[in-house]
Structures are given as structure tokens and as C-alpha cells.
Amino acid sequence: MTSQIIIALLAAAVQSGTPILFATLGEIFTEKSGVLNLGVEGVMILGALAGFVVARQTGNPVLGFFAAGLIGGLAAAIHGVVCLWFQGNQVVSGLALTILGTGLANYLGTAFIGMAAPGFAPVAVPLLSDIPGIGPIFFQHDVLVYVSYLIPPAMWLFFARTRFGLGLRAAGEYPAAATAAGLNVLAYRWLGIVGGGFFMGLGGAYLSLAYTHLWTTNLTGGRGWIAVALVIFAFWRPGRAVFGAYLFGGIMALQLRMQASGTQLSSSILLMLPYALTVIVLVLSSWRKRTSDAPASLGINIAPAE
Questions:
Q1: 263 three-state secondary structure
Q2: Is the terminal CB of the chain with fewer CB neighbours within 10 Å at N or C?
Q3: For the chain, domain boundaries
């Protein structure tokens, strides 16, 4: 009985961690280009609304999922205009994007509060889902979870083995040297911003199309901020982001189950657990002094002439 509870909790951790994983991978993609985007929360919730509305209007959740990615990329492009075109402060622009995205999504989504939309249902993977322990944890989810399994290794290969991936990293590490080598640093940074926004939008879509199938105010619930912290925890490595996302997903699943079981602990304390863990993760990451893993030119604007 205890083993079944543990397996159920771990399976819930994978599901709860999937939207955080999409968002974290998006932020890693953006920061690898040298741009800091603190607007993850705003981009995610706009993607969640776009995916929900498109799926509800068309009856096709797949279209909703990709529409969420496109809206996420467009929302992130606002950050690109401010930081790459007008040379604005990246921190301020990101915070403004979070405020704009959250407020706009909550306003436009008012008419849809409490409504349902067609979404993604769990689909067991033949053979793999029957493996004791591992099967129920990893292979009895919806298709978007399985998609999330493929993105981290694909992103690692992109950064390590492709021309565009190496160029993106060069834009974030040594933009002057990249320019001297004939690379268009601004183009690569645009790729990082818009591509990262696409993944953030997908994370939002998971919440509205797979996790809840509903629209409600503040659907993202601070997951975008957790994703920003997880980038540091993961040391900008896609593979390590998987562990971090599932860790935070497990904490979220645990606090929900503790509330449902009628624990005597205050609900406020339970809701605080994921964010308390975020602070602990940041402290431990700073204590280990692994800041050298961050792109060397992260957060530093470059002039268009460069």
C-alpha cells in the first residue's frame, strides 16, 4: 500500500513538473543567447489562455497547443523589441512583461472562467506502461508529457552539435568574438528570445489543456518564477532541468495531497512549500558558487552596430 502511494506521488510529480519543465527549458534557451527574460510568468499565462481559447473554439487541442507556443513567442518578442531594438534594461522589461501578460490574460479570460475545453487525456504507452514501478510513473500520462521527455536531449544536441546552437551560445558568451567571426549576434538573440517564448507558451498550454482542462484566473500560480529559479539550479543544463522540474512538481503534488487528506497544517503553509523550496534552491546554488556556468554576457545589451 505504501509503495502504491509513493508511485502515485511520483507520477503526480512528473505531471505537475511538466509545465515547469517546458518553461525552464524556454528560459534556458533564451539565456543561452545572453538575454535575461524575467517575464516567464506573463508569457506562460498568455500561452495558457491562447491554447485554451483556440482548443475551445476549434475543438482541436493540438491546434491550441501550437497556438499557445506562437503566442508565447510573440509575447516574448515584446521583450526583444525593448532589449534588442531600444536597448532597454532587461530586468525591468521582463518584470513589465510579467505584469502585462498576467493582467491581459486575466482580463481577456474573464468570460471563460470556469469553462472547459477539449484537452489531452492520459494514453498508456504499450509495453513500457506495464513495467513495475517505472511504467505508472513515466508512461501512463498524456502525450504532452512524452513530448517533454524528448525536448531536453534534443536541446542538448542543438547546443552541442549544431551550427545554430553553437552560434546561439557564442552570442551569449562572447558577442564581440562572435561578431568578429561573422555571426549576426542580434539575429541569434532574437532566435533565443522568440524560441524560448515558444517553449514558455507550451508550458502554459499544458496547464489549461492537460493539467486542468479549465480556465481560471492566475492559472500559472507562480510557476514562471519557479522556472526562472530552476535555470540557476540546473546550471543552464537542459538535462538537469528535468530533475529540478520534477522535484518542484513533487512538492506541489505533495501539498495538494496533504490538503486533500485533511492535514492539521495550515493551508497557507502548504501553499508556501514550493516557493520556500525555491529560496532554498537559490541559496544552495549560490553557496556552491557555480556562477561560471551562466553565459558570460547574460543580461548585457549589445548595440545594433555591433
A1: coil
A2: N
A3: 2-293
Q: Cβ atoms within 10 A of the Cβ of 27, count? A: 30
Of 178, 131, 123, which is closest to residue 147 (Cα–Cα)? 123
Answer yes or no: pTM beyond 0.90: yes
Confidence band (pLDDT; 50, 70, 90) for 273? confident
Side-chain half-sphere exposure of 51, counting CA atoms within 13 A: 36
Structure confidence by residue, pLDDT tens digits, 120-160 = 999 999 999 999 989 999 999 999 999 999 999 999 999 99
- Give the integer Cα–Cα distance in Å for 94 and 112: 27
Residue 76 φ/ψ, nearest 5 degrees: -65, -30
Sole residue written with cell 539575429: 187
- How buried is residue 95: exposed, middle or buried, by Cβ count under 10 Å (0-12/13-18/19+)? middle
- Residue 306's pLDDT is 46
Q: Answer yes or no: is pLDDT of 70 > 90.
A: yes
CATH label, 2-293, candidates 2.60.40, 1.10.3470, 3.30.70, 1.20.120:
1.10.3470
